[in-house]
Every structure is written in C-alpha cells, then in structure tokens.
Amino acid sequence: MARPVSFFKVAVGLLVLFTGIDVFAAINVRVAGGHVPGQLVVKLRDDMVKSDVFRTQGLMISKIRRALGNASVLDVKPFSTDKTLHLVKIADDRRMRDVIRSLKEESYVLFAEPNFIYRAFDDGIPNDPDFSKLWGLRNTGQTDSEAQVGKAGADINVLPLWQKGIRGSKKVLVAVIDTGIDWDHPDLKANLYTNTKEADANSSNGKDDDGNGFIDDVHGWDFYSGSNKSRDDHNHGTHVSGTIGAVGNDGVGIVGVNWEASLIPVKFLSADGGGTLQGAVESINYARLMKANIMSNSWGGGGFSDIMKQAIEATRDAGIVFVAAAGNESNNNDRSPVYPATYDVENIVSVAATDNQDKIASFSNFGSKTVHVAAPGVRIYSSIRDGKYDFFSGTSMATPHVSGVIALMLAENQDLTYKDVKERLTRTSRPVRGLKNRVMSKGIVNAYNAVHDIMPPSDDPDESLWKDVARTIESQHPYLQNQNLTFTVEHPGAKYLRIHIAKLNVEQGYDMLTIETPDGEIIDEFTGSADDQMSGYVKGDKLIVRLKTDSSVEEWGFLIDKMQVITSVSVGR
User: Fold this and answer.
1) Which residue, 65, 317, 378, 498, has most beta carbons within 10 Å?
2) 75 counts as catalytic
3) Of 396, 403, 441, 475, which is the active-site residue?
4) How would residue 32 be classed by pLDDT, with cut points 50, 70 and 90?
5) Contact yes or no for 50/36 (Cβ under 8 A)
6) Where are the alpha helices (DSSP H) in 383-472?
7) Where would I find the beta strands (DSSP E) of 149-248?
8) How many domains does the chain have?
9) pLDDT by residue (tens digit) across 61-103?
10) Boundary-marking domain end, from 410, 428, 452
11) How far, in Å, are 96, 398, 442, 455, 463 from residue 423 at the CA level?
12) Which tens digits make up the pLDDT trace of 89-145?
C-alpha cells in the first residue's frame, strides 16, 4: 500500500469544417457553449448587400466603433459562400454583448451572433489503456489497488466535459512547484511547457535569451540545484503532473484531467522530498514571472512565514490561482494552521483528500473555514519517472485534481479571475454529507458544474430549524485498548438528528469515533483532536456513536455534550 506522500480561450479547440450538406448530416455535432474570442458573425439584409456591400461594411465598422468607444475593429470580411454573412473581429471580447446589442438595433442587420465553436461529438472515453484505474476521474464502482470497492459517481465528474470536447488547452500554463517533472515521460512530454525563446538553437547557448534572469530555462527551473535541469529525481512531481495533464487519447498509459495543457516544472524539492523557504519562495516568484495561470503546490510544512505569504500575495495581485494541499496529519487546519495552505490570502484554494467511497481520507487534514474543497486522493494512479506509473495517496494527489479542473475552467474562459474560480469551485461542488463539517464547499469538486457554473441541488435541512437537546455521552478517561463501543442517541419524532462533540482526543489515524445510521452507514468520523465539532446528520430519530480503538495508545477519549434535532421538514437551497 502506498503511504501518503508528504503533502506536498483564445482556445478555439477543435473546429470541425464541412463541405456539403451530406457530410454535415453524417456527423453528430453540437455547440459546446463557447465562441471564438473577439469574433462574431453578422447577417445583413439582401438588398443592402446588393446595393453597396462596401458601404454596408463601413456602416458596421462605424457602429461598432461607437459602441466600443472607438475601440479597435480588427477586420470585417464577407463569407466566400454568402456575401450577406460577415465575420467581424474585435479587439476586446469582453465587449461582445455590447457590439451585438448595437448591431441588432440597425435596420440593415438581420442577425448578429458570436462565432460559436462546434466540436465533434463522441463518448469522451479516451483510449489510454489504464483509464479504468483512474477512479478519481471516472468511478464506476471499480475496486482500487487495495481492493476497496468504489462508489459509482464518487469522482470529479469530468467525463461529460470530455464528451463535449472540453479537454484543456496548451494556452493554460500550470506551474507544478514540486520535485520536477520527468521531461521524457511518454504521457507528459507533449504537454511539457517549452520556453520558445530559449528553445532549439538557443537551448544551450549559455545566454538569457528571453531576459527573465534565467539562462537556458527551456523547461522551467530547478531552485534546489540552481540550474535549468528541472527533471524529477523523486517521482512526486511527475505523479502530480500526470493527474493534471497526462496526454489524453494517445493510446499510452493514463489520461490527465486535461488532455492538453502546458506543465511548467518548477523544482525546489530534492530527491528526498525536502526543500527550503528560499527554494519555495524563489519557485513561486519564478512561476509568477513566467505568467503561469495556476500554481499547483502539493507540499507544506514549517511555520508561518511573512516572506512566503508576501510571495503568495504577489501571485494574487498577478491574478494567479494558488492551489495547495491541506496536509496529511488528520489535523483541523482551522485550529492548527498548516502552511502554505492556510495563509489568509484570497487566491489560495486549499484541498482535502477523499477515497473512492466519497469519504474523507483518514490522513487528510480538514477545516470548514480554511480548507475550501475536497478531491480524490487515496490510491491515485499516475505517472512516475522512467515512463512508469504507480499508486500514491495524500492530499498531494487531491491537489492536482483541483488544479486540473481549474485548468479546464480557464481553457473555456480565460476571463475568469481567481475570485471567480475559487467561488465557483466551492459553490458548485457536489454535496457529500460526510464533508459538510470538513471543508468549506461541503463536498467534492465537480468539473462539469465548475466549468458551466452549475450549483447542485441540496437536501440539507434549514440550519435555523436545529434545536439543542441535552444529552451527555462520554468514554472512559482514558479509554481502553481493543474497544468497539456503541452508544445510541435517540429523539422520538425527530426528522433529522446530529450530535455535538465538546472534546475528542484519540490516537490519530488508529482510533476512531464514528457517527452511523441504525443500519450501519457511516455518516461522519473523527480521529485525533476535534473539539467543538458538530457531526453530520442522520435522517430520522436515531443514530449510533461508535468508538473503535486498537491495541496500542490510550488517549483521553471523547465527550458529547448535546444533540441537535429538527422535528419539522424544511429543505435548504
């Protein structure tokens, strides 16, 4: 079993062109919802075109310039097959609606529409032979590497995006700040970022050809050794990179959340997985200098650093999304901050890990105020060095799932700000009952919802209806070894029921307090220290509290000081 690794547009896509009605009818094509940035199609009245096509084009240009405040109109060109149709290009895609609205007011214009993108429609399932092992991307209920049976649908719901042709873009730059990337891995090399100004004849000329302060940085930089050799000598960075952007549908190995991306290796962690504050800050600054859209950070440790916080604040000011692993200590980050994930900087997205049954990983840190989302992170199959693959676990593995989803979001809409991205991720996550008190989103990142800004329905009861009821349950202090103790909590007539844990101190990762339904479904579980915690709820008037201990450490135990009930039904959003 792989142990948790230290925690570390103008996208056009595939434009399908056709020559003739029969060919068009033979292929199932549909609009993917996007358009070519800065382009619209205008349909003119027949009589206007017949009278003076150049005069009409001039009228359009003048009208658009007035609508845009004299902003640039790049081109107006008639279709070769129909002179009543014109392709119009403007410099600022953000003004598209204003232009269309203004043109539709003119009598000589029949229609004005964005130049929509169409894509071939297929089942979206890549031909990569090990795709079935990637339960985080598509969970059909298959078993994982430890034979744990999965729960169908317990994944990030990316397949529907692939089916619509939304599969990433080389225009999105993802800086993988880690142990480097295996440049030659067959599943990664096509998506490895290349600094074109330093490439080819300039790749080893010993000059800083792009003037960024780094000589021959063709594929990122290594701040551990101080060289351009950002190759992975550990496996961790290569594994993270595969989840974000292993090449899709190439008949090799696996597929990433993005079939296409630009992965920038920024190395500061050594072969043994360790690095310094200097290396981390230099890496963050370099990724900002290279204009990365996303920074994926599957690492952490050390104490609070004003210097690192300031470096991350600079990425915020540059509009970059900073994704960070929440950590692997079963820790409540709300109470005991873990860095960099818990810095109070607005562009940070902190990530917890879940398993293939939608449960938070036993090792994962959590925090309803400081950990924003959850994603698959247990026994994740991905690329490692020398063209190989392996299963790793950790919030390190959950983080690239989220970085990958953000890359898809930006591939479809590069106008999204870090605020937009973070708000969408949390608001559109799929609700999972066991995560309601663990992460801010109360659920698992949902790629389809995030790209399309869809808020899922919730059957949560109205929070204002919860009422306190006195109920005290506690273990021995300290508790005994090899225990499997159950306590029944019941309130006749309750529609919903949950308990409040005043104090919990059990051996982290080994001894567990679980909240279950009467038929054994686990609703919530706690380990380590978790004072002042409200549990997930049970529908009905009875729940079971279970304390399971192993044969070693005896800690203080637990104290439940009350339960909360709802006796009338009112569902939330």
Assistant:
1) 378
2) no
3) 396
4) very low
5) no
6) 395-412, 418-427, 447-452
7) 168-178, 221-222
8) 3
9) 776 777 666 557 788 888 889 888 889 898 888 788 888 888 8
10) 452
11) 24, 18, 13, 11, 21
12) 988 887 888 888 888 888 888 899 999 877 665 678 999 999 999 999 999 999 999
Residue 464 makes CB contacts below 8 A (sequence gap 6+) with none
Task: Look up 216 and say whether it is catalytic.
Answer: no
Q: Are residues 470 and 446 in the same domain?
A: no
Give the active site residue among 35, 86, 185, 236: 236
Closest residue by Cα to residue 11 from 199, 196, 259: 259
Residues 448 and 470 in one domain: no
Q: Answer yes or no: do 295 and 359 share one domain.
A: yes
Task: With CA atoms as reference, report the closest residue to 560 among 519, 515, 508, 494.
Answer: 515
User: 225-282, pLDDT tens digit by residue?
Assistant: 999 999 999 999 999 999 999 999 999 999 999 999 999 999 999 999 999 999 999 9
Residue 143 has what DSSP assignment? B
Distance CA 241, CA 397 (A): 10
Whether 468 and 444 map to the same domain: the answer is no
Q: What is the pTM of this model?
A: 0.76
Q: Report residue 140 as tokens.
A: 């059909």
Report d(CA 222, CA 232) in Å as an integer: 10
For residue 487 the two structure tokens come to 């306590």
Active-site annotation holder among 178, 209, 358, 511? 178
Sequence-ordered list of residues with C-beta below 8 angstroms from that of 284, at least 6 positions apart, any chain = 177, 295, 308, 311, 312, 314, 315
Domain that holds residue 469: 463-566
Burial class (CB in 10 A: 0-12, 13-18, 19+), 131: middle
At 431, which amino acid appears? P
- Concerning whether 178 is annotated as a catalytic residue, the answer is yes
For the stretch 167-189, pLDDT in tens is 999 999 999 999 999 999 999 99
| pLDDT of 27 strictly over 70 | no
538 and 432 inside one domain: no
Whole-Å CA distances, 362 to 59, 307, 331, 569: 66, 32, 10, 32
Distance CA 310, CA 383 (A): 33
Among all chains, which residue has been given the structure tokens 């092992």?
133
Tell me, what amino acid is at 334?
A: D
Last residue of one domain, picked from the residues 452, 481, 504: 452
Torsion sign (Cα): 490, 496, 500, 505: positive
Do 460 and 539 touch, CB atoms closer than 8 A? no
Q: At what angle do helices 277-289 and 306-317 cross, to 10 degrees?
A: 10
Q: What is the phi-psi region of residue 274: left when phi exceeds 0, alpha when psi lies from -120 to 50, beta otherwise?
A: beta
pLDDT at 28 over 70: no
What is the Cβ-side half-sphere exposure of residue 423, based on CA atoms within 13 angstroms? 6
Q: What is the Cβ-side half-sphere exposure of residue 399, based on CA atoms within 13 angstroms? A: 43
